[in-house]
Amino acid sequence: MANRIEHRSVEANGINFHVAVSEPTGRRNRAQAPPPVLCLHGFPEGWMSWRLLMELMPEATLYAPDLRGYPGSDYPRRGYDVFTLTDDIKALIEALDIERPILLGHDWGGALGWIFAHRYSRLIRQLVVVNCPHPKTLLRAVLRFEDFQTLRIPWVPAFQVPFVPEYLLTTTVGRKLLELSFTLREGLDGKMDRSVVQDIVARFDHARDMRGAITYYRALVRTLLLPWRRARLEALYRHPITVPTTLVWGMKDEALSANVAQKSDVDAGCPVDWRPLEGVGHFVDLEAPDLLADELRRVFAGSEMPDTKSWFESLDRVRDEVLA
User: Cβ neighbours of residue 271 under 8 Å, at least 6 residues apart?
Assistant: First the structure.
């Protein structure tokens, strides 16, 4: 059984998206096929971050869009707030005619996955997040200096400077630094596929190619600073996620704290199945796609989620610790 990757142009939420689709070929009994998977990439990856996973999972149908503002898709001037970005995901599900996919997100794609599940749990079957804490959990950790999380992501304030970051990162030296931002964060030297990293970075030829990706960070900070936008986000978090949720974590991630991430269930409002990957860094999809494929197959197989009764019994204790 083999798979093939085809590339589609899809109009959704008023803009055009490039979507890579990996589908099984030669399958006779499609009724036994695993559910479709919609893959949301992180910064600054694009659909290519999922290419290795697609090659390792010929039994599954995977959809991997280039998100708004990334090379391959449109570069609109507006719409980089988390509400519009999650509306993009909803529109993509409808335009691609996917029936209740598993939503798989890494890094920024994971953050959007959390928020999407709060808004639109009914549209997905399960949520699988890779190396991204719940956004509310992460913000609390940053503000309270939990496990030095405030110091782990210094590029966030730097990205608030207009024009300069996207210009610098698309110079010859800047693209080399982007490559290093991948390879220096792997858990074990040599595990990451350098050719895929080079392909990802090569797409950022000009400042305009990087502007959308950096604008995600600027729009998020504006959402947190503007009272009415922050209130809308806080109201959204009060709607618990109602689908089975898994958090896969490369334990050698130096940018995002595993200790912080393990508190995500408090803000998600649901049990979260914690799946640590020892010796793996932040870019699980590029460094250990085989392990990620195993985790996804485990989700396909319908593995039991953590015991709900035990989770609710411990929730009050954890909430008291977090909110103290």
Answer: 245, 265, 305, 306, 307, 308, 311
